[in-house]
## 1
Amino acid sequence: MSEPLIFELSREGKRGYTFPECDVPESPLASLIGTRHLRREPAALPELAEIDVIRHFTRISRLNFCVDTHFYPLGSCTMKYNPKVNEKIAALVGFSQLHPLQPPQTVQGMLRLLFELEHLLCEITGMDAFTLQPAAGAHGELVGMMIARAYFARAGEPGRNIVLIPDSGHGTNPSSAALYGFEVQGLASDASGRVDVKQLGAALTPRVAALMLTNPNTLGLFEKDISSIAGLLHDNGSLFYCDGANLNALVGLAKPGDMGIDILHTNMHKTFSTPHGGGGPGAGPVGVKKKLAPFLPVPRVRRDDARGTYFFDGVGAGDSVGRVHAFYGNAGVLLKAYAYIRALGAEGLRQVALDAVLNANYLKELVSACFDIPYNSGPCMHEFVLSAARQKEHGVSALDIAKALIDRGFHPPTVYFPLIVKEALMIEPTETETKETLDTFARVLCEIAQAAEHSPGTLTNVTPHTTPVSRLDEVSAARKPVLTWCAESGREEKDSASGRQRR
Amino acid sequence: MKKYTKTHEWVEPDGTRATVGITDHAQGELRDIVFIELPKKGAGVSQGAACAVVESVKAAFDIYAPLSGKVIEINPKIEEDPSLVNQDPEGAGWFFKIEIADAAELDGLLDEVTYYKLLRGEAQ
Amino acid sequence: MHYTPHTDSDREEMLRRIGVRGIEELLVDIPASLRNTEFSLPEGMSEHELLKHMTVLASANRPLSELTSFLGAGAYEHLIPAAVEYLLARPEFSTCYTPYQPEASQGTLTALFEYQTMICRLTGMPVANASLYDGASACAEAAILALRAQGKNRVALARSLNPFYARTVATYLKGLGTEIVEIPYTEGGQVDTGCLADIAGTVSCVIVQSPNFFGVIEDMKAIGEIIHDTDALFVASVNPVSLGVLAPPGECGADIAVGDVQVFGNTLSFGGPYAGFFAVAAALMRKIPGRVCGMTQDREGRRGFVLTLQTREQHIRREKATSNICTNEALCTLASCVYLSLLGRQGIEELARLNVQKAHYACEVLSAIDGVTPYFSGPFFNEFVITLDSAIPLDALEERMLKQGILPGLRLGRFFSDLERCLLVCVTEARTREEIDRFAAALKQILKENL
C-alpha cells in the first residue's frame, strides 16, 4: 500500500484547525489544576495542514469497496443501497445539534419521531412495544436476554437458565446469551436446514428460558414450522426470541408477532437501510409482546395524550431491566430508519421484501448449475448459501473464490458461514440491485467455478492483484500483534503488546 | 510409554509425573497456530476436562487433559513462539507437565497403535 | 418513493427464468395463516414530501445553534471542523461493511489503526480496540473483563461516576449476579480514598471517572497506588478532551481506560451515535472486547492492515467470546481520527486549555453572584457544580433561562438527593466570554427577583 500513515505525514508545527482566541482572562494551569494532575508532555498526535488531512483520508477512502461503487452481496449483512436524502435529513441542525439532556419542551420533534418510530416498528413487526435504545443488533440481543431473565425472575422461575440456539445461528446469539449468564445449548438443524421440531421437543426442559431463532434462517429459508415451534415453547413456559437480522425478507408480507415471537430484535442498518459505516453505527431496536413490555429498558418515550406532548419516562412500569445506553440509543441512525419507512409506506416496504426474494431466487437460479446448493428443496427467501465443496475437490476454496471475485470487481459474499455448510458462500443480493448487475455477477461467478475445474492453479491461493494489497499475512498479525504505530522505530511499539502485567 | 486420547492429546508418563501435548495430527488440522493459552502452574486439571486453548487465525480449540493432576510446569517456549507446536508437536512443542493424581487413569487411554488405527479410521 | 430499480418487465423476465408463474410461488414457505398484509402505515412520500415532513419535525426542536448551552454530563458541545463532516460523507467510508475482506477494505482498516494509535497516545495505554457502543457500555465491558480476569463477583464504582454509566454497568451485571459497591465522595467532590482502601481488596475492579461526573479531577495517581496494592483492576473512565492537559491513565497505573469519543468531532445528535473507546494494559490484550485492527504485510512485503485477534470474537468463539459485540461505531471513530489529525499535538493541548480557562472564568463570574456558591472544592476541568441559595425552584429557573435562550446546566437533584439545589455547569471552547457573561447576568437577575 503506497499511502503513508498519518503519523508518517506529520511535520512539526503544522496545524489543520485553529480555535478562536481565548477571550477570557487566563491563569497558569498549574495554579488552576495543580501540577500533580498535569500531563508532562503533549500527546504525540500527528501534525498536519488541513489539505494534508483531506488528501490522506480521501486517498485511503479509495482503497475501500462500498455499496456506492461495488455490488456487495454479503449474506446476512443486507448491504442495500442507502438513500441519499436520509443523509441530508440527519444533517439538519434541528436533529444533529440536540443535546440529549435538553428539557423535553425543546426536543418535541425528536421525541415525536422516536415515539412514532416505535409505533411504526410495532405495526411492521406485529410486536406490542419497542425500545429504541440498543445501539446495534447484538446489543438488542443482549437486551432481549435481559428481558427474558427479568421476566422469569418476576415469574418466580429464576432457574430457567438455558437458551437453545440452532447450529445455523449467528455467533452473536450464543455470545449474547452467555454474556448475560445463560447456559447455551445447541440444536442441530434437520435435513431441510430448519429447526428439527422433534429434537426441540426433546430439549425442552423446565430449565429452558428461550429459543433464539433467526427467521428466515441463515440459510435463507423460512422456518415453516414456526407456529408449532412457538406452541412447543409456550407450552413449556419458555419464551420465543427471534433474531430479526433477516427481517428484510418479511416486511409487508408477514409479521413476526403473528408467529408467536415474544422478543424480536431488528437491525436498522439492515432492514431499514441506514448506512453501515464500515462497521457501525447501527441501531437494534427490540420489540416485545405486551406481557414483556414492563421489562423494557428505561427511559421510555411517552405521549401525554391530553396535551399532545412527548416526554421521557425514566422509571417505566417498575420492572424495567434498567438503562442499557448512556442516553437513548443511536438517535442519529434511528431517524434515518424513520425517514426510510415514511418514504416507502406499506406498499414500498412490501416491494422491498418481494424484490429481495425475487433477486435472491433469480441469482440462485443463474448460478445453480455451477455450484452445489445444500438445503435447496425449494425457493429461498432473501438469501441463499452455495457450497464450494465441488470446487474444493480441485483445491479451490470458498476463500479463493472470494478473492477471485474481488479481482473481478465484486465484493465477495459472506464466506464460511453458516457453519453447517461446507465451504459456504452466503449470498444476499438485496432488493436494490438491478437485473443487469445480477446477470454480470452470475456470469463471473460461473466463470470462476469453471476455472476451478479446468485450471484450478489460476485460483488456488492466488491473491487479488487489482487491490492495493495482495493476500495479507494474518498468521503473523495474530502471533505478534502490531496494534499501534511507533514512529521512533519505524515500526510499531512491539514490546508494548507483549509486556508483562504488574502482578 | 506414550499414550493418546481420542481428542488428539498425548501424554508421556515419567514416574509420578507426565508431559502433555497435542499430536502431530492435531497440529496439522489446526494449521498455523497463533496463540496458546496454557493452564497456570499449580492449577488442577481433570481427565477429559478442557485445560488449555489453541488458536489459529480463525478458530479456537479446547485441549482436554488426558489425565487428572496438578500442573507443575508449563512450556514457556510455546507461549513465546506457538509455531513450535506446528514444527515439533510431540517434542519441543509440549504443553505442560503434571503430577499424576491417579495412575489408573492411564489404562483408559489409547496406545500408539490404537491411536493411529483410529486416525486411519477417521481418514476413511 | 422507492429504491428498488426493477421495471415490471424485468420482474416478469426474472420470474420466467426462475421458472415460476408469479412471485407468490416463491413465498410458498410462509404458511398462508401467517401472511399478513394488513399494515396501517402512512402512505409513502416522494423525496420532496419527505424532506418537508422531516424539516417540520426538525423545526419542532430547539437545537443548540439557537441556544446557549451549558449542558454537559457525558455529551459535550465542541467545535467541529468542516473537514470532518466533509470526509465522513464519503461513501467509501459510510456505505461499506465491517472490513472482513481486508484487500477490499484497506481504507477503513488504515483509519482504524490510526485511531487505535491515537487513543493509545492520548491515554498512555499500549493497546486499544476499534470501539464499543459508547462510554457507558465501555464501562460495563470493562467490569465484565475484570470479573472474568480476577474472579471476584464484586465490583466497586465511584459514586462520582456518571450515573448513566453506573446504571448501565448495573444493568449489564445483573445477569451475572454481581454485587456492586459504591465508593463515596468527599467534600472536595473526590473519591474517598480511605473508603477505597477498605474496599479495593474485595473487588475485581474499581471504576473511577476523572474528571468525574461533577467535573472534579480525581487524584488518579494516588488512586492507582491504592488499587495496585490489591488484586483489583483499576478502570479509569476519562473524558479524552481532558487528556490534552491531564496526566494520562496509563501514567496513573490504570489497567483499563475507557470513555467516549463523541467529543472528538461527533455531533451531539440527541445522544448517539457516539463511540466508546477501550484501552488496556499489555497483559489484558487478549481479553479485550470488540474488534482490533493490526498491521501486517502482504506477499510482496507491502504494509497492510487486518482485523486481528479474531478468536476473541463472537463470530468465532460464540458463547466463549470476550463480548457479544459485532457492529460497533466505526464511522464515529473515523470522525475522531480525522478530528485529532486536524488538531494535532498542539491543537489537543490548546483545546483542553481553552476548556479549563473558560470553565474557570465562568465559575468565577457565577460564584460572584449573591446566592451562588461552588459546591465542591476540588480542582475541575470543564464542568463544575454550583449550589443556588434562592426560593425559586430549579425547574422554574430553568424555564426562565430558557426564555432567554439559555440552557443553564443540569439539575442534579434527579440523580443525587443531597444535591437538590445544585446545577452541573459545563463550559467548553464553544462558549464565548459574552455568552458566559450573559448567563451570569440572567442568573443574577432571576436570583435577585426571588430572594
## 2
Amino acid sequence: MTFNKLLTGAALIATFATSAVAENKTIRMGTEGAYAPYNFINDSGEVDGFEKDVGDELCKRANLTCTWVVNEWDTIIPNLISSNYDTIIAGMSITDERDEVIDFTAEYFPADPSTYVALAGASDDAINGIVAAQTSTIQAAHVAGTSATVVEFATPEETVAAVRNGEADAVLADAAYLSDIVKASNGALAFVGKPVAIGGGIGMGIRESDGELKATMNKAIASMKADGSLAKLIAKWFDGRSVEY
Amino acid sequence: MFDFCTDPNALESFSWWSCYLTTGKHINFYISFFVVFALLIVTVPLILIFAFAGALLRQSKILPLRWIGVIYTSMVRGVPDIIFFLFVPIALDQGIEYLRHKAKCSDWTETIRQGNDFVVCQAAKMPVGSSAQWIHETYGFFLAAFAFSIVFGAFAANTIYGALNSVPNAQLETGSAYGMTQRQVFMRIQLPQMWTYALPGLSNLWMILVKATPLLFLLGVEDIVYYAKELGGTKTARFTYPHADWRLGYFIVLLIFYLGLSWVSEKFFDHLTSKVSKGQATLSGSS
C-alpha cells in the first residue's frame, strides 16, 4: 500500500522528493504495552488492547501497512523524534507541554478523569500524603502541583505496587487502568478521594514534520467517529462505556 | 501450546501451570535468555579489540595517537553509563542514516533537522521501514552491542594498559639484549605475561558486563529483566491467565540465573588464571 493511492487530488501536488518518501511506507506504531486496557502485551506475547484495535482499524481505513513496536514510556517521545517509529499510540493525553515537542492527531478517546487508589480502609487524607504516579505523565505533574509528595515510577505496575507495600499512600492514574486493578485486588485496594479531571483527550502522537501522516490519521479517526465504530470499540474495552461522537 | 489449553479457567493446577509456562510470552522470555548470551558473545571480542586499541594508543610514542588513547579511556569512563547508552546508539543510528541519506537521496530538498525532528528519506532509513520487526530488533541489538563495547572497552583498555606496564622492565630489557626487535619483545615477552596482571581486572569487568545487560531495554531490546517485570506484573481478568503481582517469583528466577552465571564465570577465570600464570615468576605464578 502506498501513500500515493491515498493522497489523491490536491494532496498529491507533491514534489518528486516527497513521492520518494511515499514509496513502501510502513507505519511503525509505538506503544508502551503495559497499560491495560489501553495497550498491553497479551499472553501470546503480542500487543493487544483498545489501542491495538483502534490502530489497526485506522491503518486499514488509511490504506497503510502498520507494524507494532513496544517502547518504554520514559523514552517514548525521544524515539519518535529520532524516527525509530512513526506514531505514539499509548494512552497519551494531549497536553500543551507535549504539543510543543510533537504533534497530536484529533482525540480518539475522550478526556478520562484520573482517580486515586489506596489500600482499602484508608481515609481520604491519603491523597495528601505520598502519592505514586508514573514518570512524565499528566498525573505526576498534577500531584506535584498539590500539597502531596509525588514519588515517580517508570511503569504503572510499580506505582500500584508502591501502594501495596506501603511506600506510597495512594496512586493517581487513569480511572480505566485502576478500575481493573481494584477489581482484581479482591478488596485489598479501593478508590479514595474524588476523581480529578486533568488533561485532554487521548490522541496519537506524530512528529511535527509529519503533517501528511497527521492529516491521514485525522481523516481516518473522523471516519471511525462518524460511523460509530470507535464508540463500539470503546464500549468493548471499557466495560460498555458509551461515548458520543 | 498444548491442546488442552483452550480454556485455562477450567484447568487443574498442574495443567494450568504447564499451559501458563508455555504461553507465547513465556517462550519469548526463554528466548530472551539467549539474547543475553548472544550479547555477551558479540560484545566480548569487540571489547577486547577496543581495549587493545585503547591501551596501545595510550602507550604509543606518537603524541597525537597517545592523546586519542587518553581521551578515549578517560572520557568514556567518566560519563555515566546510562547517558552513554542513551546517546551512542541514537547518535550512531542518526549518523548512519545521515550518510545513507546523502548517498541515496540527493534530490531531497527538505532539511534533515526540522526543529526537534530527525527526518531522512524513506530509502535511507536504517533498517528500511518496511522490513520485518526482527530485522529492526537485530539492528537495535547490534547498536546496543556496539555501545556496550565502547564503554567496557574503555575500562578494559585501562586494565590492559596497566597490565602491560606491570611486566617487569628487566625482562623486556633482557629480550632486547638477546637481540629481539621491539615487536618480538612485545609479542614474546610482554603480551603473554601481561594476562596474569590483566585477568583480575578483566574478570571484574566481565561480572559488571553480565549485570549491565538489563540496560539493553533502554535501547529497545527486550531482555530477561523486561520480561520478568512484564510477566510478573499483576494480570487482571483481561488476560488469559490472570494472577496477582508475581514479580518476586520471576526475580528469584533471575537471581538464580545471575548467581549461576557468576559462579560458572568464577570457575572459568580461576582456570584461566592458573593457565596463564604457569611458569611465570609473577603474581600468582610459581617461580
